[in-house]
Amino acid sequence: MLLDAGPGFTTAWWPFEGIHADTPGALAAVGVDPADVDLVVLTHLDYDHAGGLLAGTWPDDLRLAFPHARVVVHEDAVAAARAADPDAPDNVGTRLLELLVREGRLEAVGDGAVVADGIVVRSAPGHRVGHMLVSVDGGDPFVFAADSFHNVEHVAHPEWDTSSDEDGDTALATRRRVLAELADSGARTAITHASGPHAFRVERDTDGGLRAVEAGP
Predict the structure, then answer these.
(1) Closest Cα partner for 158 from 182, 137, 142, 136?
(2) Element at 87 (helix H, strand E)
(3) Of 12, 14, 47, 125, which is the most exposed, with the fewest CB atoms less than 10 Å away?
(4) Where are the alpha helices (DSSP H) in 10-92?
């Protein structure tokens, strides 16, 4: 299972210089070939999360970079992408969904869906329509919070995370809910764009505030 796929060739769409992305190389480093992946969970359809599912040439000669994988997407994200202009700037989702449907690989799910043994997806709206996080059950539970928040500094100050959400009020409410749940559960977590620890836990301070504490690999 792969959680999000990176930007792939849409790295060139990123507005900043020096961005490097190599999902196949990262997989190879842990002994995985793209053909081995049989499940991809997309937390949302932004190009930096979903573009790596595509190979070929944009926009008219596209194929799937993970040829054997079923791809899980929240049903609200699917509906929004289908209603969007495929030629809108940075819109990778509409054409990607068309290809997934044509290849019989799309699995649209709702809140609380169990997508594999011990793997549950949960709605976390606001950053984007249909944004979701992924919970991995087990002896040391893990939550991939994706873009629910964007920096470990936002654990203590969720109101600082204001620059990239589609619906700011909903995103802030989601962020506060997710952070409280992480503090209560003690689960390890990771977010996509963190500049701090790759894995951390959310803990409560004595004054009731929250903080991020590195949790190791």
Answers:
(1) 182
(2) none
(3) 12
(4) 23-29, 47-50, 75-83
Other C-beta atoms closer than 10 Å to the C-beta of 47 total 23
| Strand ranges, E, within 75-165 | 106-109, 114-116, 119-123, 132-136, 142-146
Question: How far apart (Å, rounded) are the C-alpha atoms in residues 143 and 215?
Answer: 12
What CATH number should be reported for the domain whose range is 1-109?
A: 3.60.15.10
At 126, the pLDDT band (50, 70, 90 cuts) reads very high
Q: Which sign does the torsion angle of CA 46, 48, 53, 59 carry?
A: positive
Range scoring the smallest mean pLDDT among 18-27, 29-38, 96-105: 18-27
Mean predicted confidence (pLDDT) in 208-215: 93
Closest CA to 128 of 94, 89, 81: 81
* DSSP state string for 154-182: HHH-GGG--SS-SSHHHHHHHHHHHHHHH
Whether this model's pTM surpasses 0.70: yes
The model's pLDDT over 68-110, given as tens digits with 9 standing for 90+, comes to 999 999 999 999 999 999 999 999 999 999 999 999 999 999 9
Q: What's the CA gap between 146 and 132, in Å, rounded?
A: 8
pLDDT of residue 197: 67
Q: The CATH number of 110-217 is which of 3.60.15.10, 2.40.340.10, 3.90.380.10, 3.40.1130.10?
A: 3.60.15.10
